[in-house]
Amino acid sequence: MSLPAALAEIVDDFGALGDSDKVTLLLEFSRELPELPEHLREDAMEPVPECQSPVFLSVDADDTSSVRLYFSAPQEAPTTRGFASILHQGLDGASAEDILAVPGDFYHDLGLDSAVSPLRLRGMAGMLGRIKGQVRAQTGGASSPGA
User: Fold this and answer.
1) What is the DSSP letter of 63?
2) Taking the model in full, what pTM does it have?
3) What b/e readout covers 126-141, taking b as 16+ CB neighbours within 10 angstroms?
């Protein structure tokens, strides 16, 4: 599986834990999601309807060697917020090529299938799919830096 180093490390961290500790780690991630920068407003961001909670994202792929990701997820939705934080910490600053190479079902490797409902996991897949869609749209479908 091809994952950027930061995301691979997160997957390894989850893989080393039992189910209850994985949920605890997911909740820790939910508290680490950064606030939106001043220049972004939620109403200008892409909604992620695959998520059960209102989640919005924005991708800045102007520099294909260091794509920037921004998420807005409510505090009262810690699972969804945790997924957004995992994607932020694992992919923010990665190249467009590396982001596009992430398998759409990588989240199964977190081992949360028995602790989190399939509907919630589909929300994470939806976030990743929308990130990839924005990267493709902004880079003209290019998957390599400078292309």
Assistant:
1) S
2) 0.92
3) bbbebbbebbbebbee
